Amino acid sequence: MNLEKILYEKFSYTQFRNGQREIIESVLNGTDTIALLPTGTGKSLCYQLPGYLVDGCVLIISPLLSLMQDQVEQLRAKGEKRVVAINSFLSFEEKKQVLRNIRYYKFIYISPEMLHNEGIKKILQSLTISLLVVDEAHCISQWGYDFRPDYLEIGTVRKQLGSPVTLALTATARQEVRDDIKRFLKLEMVNEIIFSSDRPNIAYMVQRVNGYEEKRTTLLSLVKQLQGPGIIYFSSKKLADEWAKLLNEATSYNVGAYHAGLDMEQRILLQQQFLFNELDIMCATSAFGMGINKENVRFVIHFHPPVDIESYLQEIGRAGRDGEKSIAILLYSPDDIHLQMQLMEGELPNSLQIEYFGQYMLQAKVTINNKEQSSMDTFLQQPLDGFSEVQWRLLRKFYLSSRDENTFKTSIQHFIEKRKQWKQIKLQEMNQWIISSGCRRENMLHYFNEEKNIDVLNCCDHCGITMEIYQKVHSIKKERLKLNWQERLQEIFAISLD
Amino acid sequence: MNYTIALSLLCIERFNGERSTNAVYYLLTGKKSSQTIQDAGWYQLRQYYHAIPQLSKQAFDNMIKFLLEENYICNQDDTNNITDKGKEKLGFLISKSPFPKYFNGWKYQQLDEIFWKRLSLLIQTISYWNRNNASFYPVQRSYETQSWVKNWLYVMKNKYDKQALTKKLYGELQSILSELDKTSQTISPTLLIYRLSSYQKTGMTSGQLANTLNMDEEYYAICFRSILHYLINTISHNRERYSLLWKLLEDLKQRVVLTQSTQATYQLLQQGKSLKEIAHIRRLKKNTIEDHLIEIALIDPDFSIEGYVPPKLQEKIIVAAQSQSTRKLRTIKEHVQEADYFMIRLVLSKWSESNKQT
Questions:
Q1: Which of B 126-145 lie inside 8 A of A, CB atoms?
Q2: What ipTM was reported for this prediction?
Q3: Which residues form the Helicase ATP-binding domain (chain A) (predicted)?
Q4: Do B305 and B270 lie in a common domain?
Q5: Residue B207: closest CA among chain A residues belongs to which residue?
């Protein structure tokens, strides 16, 4: 079996990246595997390639709808037609059609809550599943930074599916999280393949400023100097929008703004523009980045510190996927702590939202009694305005597993309190990293119980960075766009008028 | 936000203090309820129905607060009405950004969205296909749209060769848009064309294009949809001339606009069941069934209300509504004692249907 041959035929790569071969061989040998590969080093290949070497299908459980859609489209763009995502984006009719033809598909992506649907589970049980993939497996652990209660039941579903060979993938997991993955997925003989979370081609820099004004001027001068493409993370949609506008005017870069407030079509276009280098810089909220395979991102700047080290590592991991020199810069002002607290609390539903959700479901129940054909599910599928996907999933999960409205409220409030205490600790660890002295890379590695055992040139601001190598080589003058619809229409259809 | 202000003021003016402020929100976002459908019909606001579907309730409430503070509207009998200052503002906003004449939110609700999804994905696909490149990231991700485009191409490939198909589709678009360019001063095809993605060139987002053209984003969105409405309307009336484009609409025409529950009631009604029987069969309140009837009267021009209100009484109600120039049920009832509220609502609905301009 020549893995390189398939790698080239199906994915047009000539060689594996660090770790990929080992993981692929492990699952092809029929061993349950936990694999830890740093962000941006090609995790999805580790289950996509084996798909071509096994008879049955590959079932992938993925926590985020948008990520799932991206991965489906990426596989399709590589010419793989036998790929589908079963999630709440599908209408009732579409779902029926997909399930009817389920045997056609090689790669089936599914969101965790769909696994609870008895009908779907039955259909899956009738399939030969050669590989079960749990993507972002750290979501299963409450010690993780991104705990998703609906991940807890995957272990049971796995048994019901006849315990197929399982691959649990994650980019960031400390030992206690990995133990949880084993325990909750009910993995017994497991091969743990752990690679360093370090990305030596990314330099770490923390730029301390005093207050918002200084942050503004610092960011502006950084962007003017740095070589793109780049991503700048902001704490709010409003900031991302404002800065995109400002940087478009003040620099020679084409700058876009990406956040959850945009509709699906705009998000797809912006991702595409960035991927095709039509945009040089993306001003984004944390909604941006998952599932984007852009290789040449040269810098990631954080306008504010994230709420935990894992999130930070994941976000800066979008730089330098091509292995070239890249830089991660964190702007930090002592008063950022208030903002971090807000961000942290915003991840979980607040008491007003819980109240509103309860009301909404009460109303839904009345409607359901009136209309036989609808079920609870239609009301719970898509988040209402003002709820994030993560918040909605939590509410949904607790609502469906509670006896009545009161148990629902007490249990979710109890959960949120506990989560907040844990997140508080994670937040302190993040800020500790920011203010600590010594090598930033080493400190980061220690956090993940790793040692720094290679020398890195341009390691971090404490070890010393030569900023020149990240600076713009030449600047281009931005041309003002002239709009002529007739010409553009010809261009689209490749029509020449002669 | 400017254009939301304009359209909200416009609705508030038409409602003339007879409807709640939330009714404005439901109308602009196109709520599918009998009440909102009724409001759209009674107050001749169908054009504006579903004009700003993306508007959030919170943004709307904040805007109303702003309008009150600025004294563009004022509180009057538990609801809001427009002030003279508001009328002036409305006049100013509309003269600056006239409501596009092709826009008809009622008629083309949802149809425009599906049409755009198909059109944009089809053009992107053809643009790549034409350069012998089949691998790209589709601009539309809905399963429905993707399978539709696949199917369309499959059928067309048997009829035309690649070049002929490309040329024909280009020709149809070029011709239909040139006509728009000639007849409309305010709406240019640019608003639509630069949104399209093609071979190695991604389309602009609505926000980017509005910005480039220096337009208010909400006004841009309405102008953009008005081009879709123009296209749908023109294509449907010239099916042979735009035979390829007509294929994008052919299967969509039949969609019914009645709410689901009303459809069920209508079916029973057509089987000859009485109101009471329907309420019993469907285990719904009589009031609910009456709401359904109002909705049907508003939507279906062939629906006769004579079985519910005698013609003489219908006339009396219409006269009362006209002479008092109101849609307020209580006022009308004071003038026509023998009618009940359901009768009045039914007549007003039927009457607005037969009066509507298409």
A1: 126-127, 130-131, 134-144
A2: 0.83
A3: 24-191
A4: yes
A5: A266
